[in-house]
Amino acid sequence: MIKRIFLGKHKVKFNFNEDLFFSIYRNDLFEKDLGNILNAENKEIFGIKNKDVIKNRDKIKNILNNILKKKIEKIASKNKRKIDATFFLSDGLISLTNLSWFIFLVFTRILEKYENKELEIILPTKFQTFQRPKSSFELHSLSHNVNFIDLLAYKFFLKMCPSSWQIIFKENIIENITMPKEEKINFLTRTFLGLSRCSNEQFDMFSSFVLGIFLWIKKVKRTSFYYPNEKDITTVKNIEIPQKFNEIFSEIINQFLPEYFYSNLYNDFYLFSILPIYRSGYSRLINTYSNNDRYNLFNMVAANKGEKLINFQHGLTYGTRLIMGKAEFREYLIGFFISWGWKSHGNLVNSIFKMPSPLLSKFNILRKKSEVKNHIIFVGTAMCLYEFSFTSKPLTTNLLKYREDKIKFLKNINNEILSKLFYKGGDSKNNGY
User: Fold this and answer.
1) Measured torsion, CA atoms of residues 157, 105, 71, 94, in degrees rounded to the nearest 10
2) CA 46, 47, 51, 56: dihedral to nearest 10 degrees?
3) Which of 119, 232, 381, 390 could join 102 in a cystine, given CB atoms 3.0 to 4.6 angstroms apart?
4) Are residues 97 and 70 in contact, defined by beta-carbon separation less than 8 angstroms?
């Protein structure tokens, strides 16, 4: 029997014991029997170990530096503007890079296993139409769209399939997914109340106003917190990226790099450069990983004018994250860093200072109001099958393992403790799981 590999959602009858599914990030494949749909071969192909992902992180660094950043800077140079593309490495652009690389990685695994065997590639006959995104916000939404992931995988399939494989196009099921709209009001309000010096999303409006005043009058004394490891830099430079990936990824960038870099960048650069609001030596507490390209350009101009940018920790895994820690690509490179307790971050950066999380500290109020005294609250999380599938690696198999581990943990608790345990699940309604 010829093995088949499916891309997308199809009407044909599957052989779950034999068929391979590339689109395991689609929720609809898991609705009836979550997890059991994946046969052993599927799990082997997608089950990338942490140590393998760490190796791939250096390759992604190389891709960001030698393809993506150079492309952005080349476009800017055509408009007679010299920019540092590090400031523009938004969530959207980094996600697109991760997504492309891990699609290539998984397909390479399939090639290694089945290159000399007969294989049928079942591809969709139609795709949702995607225009060039206007901004990095739209690009970030695209990178979490299962139809868009299918489209990118389709590009790799067509370019990399060996001649011994048979490509078959079959009618597929497609539901057009509406892209969320960018919410600019809160961001602009926070920036305005922060007197343009505090726009970080970790702070409420009042805190932004107070911090904005403080940053207008307080000058930063220390200037450098970035400590690059020369060995790591040399290692990344010496990593070779397969030419086939370079070709396909360059095509993807040409098609989906946000319109902003082709249109508004030139005028905005001129406008921001003449604004009389910069104070050399003073600082700005900026919004991390902003998908607002205009805001990123503003921060770059401010840094060129001698201002000091401060990034603020926005997640829990700094200091311990081994898998695709995006901080080292942008946060550690463009300014100072305030953490929630981590003093150092490997060879990359030392925190300007440590402080409690402004969000986690709100739990003090909950503790005082809570009627739960002598109980344990076990907090779970909701995971979306497609949103994080390729952020650092295909995570669907890990997601299923996470659920299994929770059940195993609860089964091993004695009855006395179990009777005092409350379980708080994640927000499954808004996470598609």
Assistant:
1) 120
2) 10
3) 390
4) no
Give the bridge partners for 309, in sequence order: 284
- Start-to-end C-alpha separation, the chain: 34
- Alpha-carbon distance of 310 to 335, in angstroms, equals 5
For residue 151, give every residue at least 6 positions away whose Cβ sits within 8 Å of its Cβ, in sequence order, or none: 127, 128, 130
Q: Which helix or strand (DSSP H or E) is residue 166 part of?
A: strand 166-170
Distance CA 209, CA 194 (A): 4
> Sorting pLDDT into bands at 50, 70 and 90, what band is 226?
very low
Residue 128 corresponds to which tokens in the numbers above? 């949702």
Residue 426, pLDDT > 70, answer: no
Give the contacts of 55 (CB within 8 A, at least 6 positions apart).
none
- CB–CB of 10/122 below 8 Å? yes
Q: Tens digits of per-residue pLDDT, 151-186? A: 999 999 999 999 889 999 988 877 777 777 776 656
Residue 329 near residue 112 (C-beta atoms within 8 A):
no
Residue 136 has pLDDT above 70, yes or no: yes
Report the C-alpha gap between 137 and 389 in whole angstroms: 19
Alpha-carbon separation of residue 327 from 91, 308, 312, 318 (angstroms): 11, 17, 11, 8
Query: For 60-84, what is each residue's pLDDT tens digit?
Result: 888 888 899 999 999 888 767 788 8
CB distance 196 to 36 below 8 Å? no
CA 54 to mean position of chain CA atoms: 15
- C-beta separation of 298 from 191 below 8 A: no
3-6 β-sheet, strand order? 20-21, 3-6, 119-124, 166-170
* Two tokens, residue 215: 């940053």
Question: Phi then psi for 4, rounded to 5 degrees?
Answer: -120, 145
Three-state DSSP class for residue 198: strand
| CA distance linking residue 303 with residue 296, whole number of Å | 11
